[in-house]
Write a structure and sequence with these properties.
By secondary structure, the chain is an all-beta fold. It is 0% helix and 57% strand. It contains no helices and eleven strands. The protein has strands at residues 2-6, 9-11, 17-24, 32-38, 44-51, 56-59, 67-72, 77-82, 91-99, 102-106, 110-114. The strands form two sheets. Strands 2, 4, 5, 6, 9, 10 and 11 form a seven-stranded mixed sheet that branches. The protein is globular. The termini are far apart. The mean pLDDT is 96.
């Protein structure tokens, strides 16, 4: 199993970024996936989940309406579209597979910095 994130970078407040998580070793459409972030000096924070097999998505309140989680099953890739970014969104973002006992496979993380 391998999860590889990309798409992070430096963006001004109000800007947008799209994170990608390329997955190998399992089929995305049959699995639950998550985005988790860690801001500087803080703990891990769950951001969003997608359950493609039942068509459900979930978001932490602070990103609801600004972030969108999705998958491209043909590419076996998970995405996080982030719009209207704020300084408090600055963090390392991780994609993670949700197994039977929690988040069991993680990517290496991609840095998102929101600053003017």
């Amino acid at each position: 199993v391998q999860l590889v994130e990309s798409g992070g970078g430096l963006v001004q407040p109000g800007g947008s970024l799209r994170l990608s998580c390329a997955v190998s070793g399992f089929t995305l459409s049959n699995n639950a996936m998550n985005w988790v972030r860690q801001a500087p000096g803080k703990g891990l924070e769950w951001v969003s989940s997608i359950y493609s097999y039942i068509g459900r998505t979930y978001y932490v309140d602070s990103v609801e309406g600004r972030f969108t989680i999705s998958t491209d099953n043909a590419k076996n890739t998970l995405y996080l579209q982030m719009n209207n970014l704020k300084s408090e969104d600055t963090a390392v973002y991780y994609c993670a597979h949700e197994g039977g006992v929690g988040l069991d496979y993680w990517g290496q993380g991609t840095q998102v910095t929101v600053s003017s």
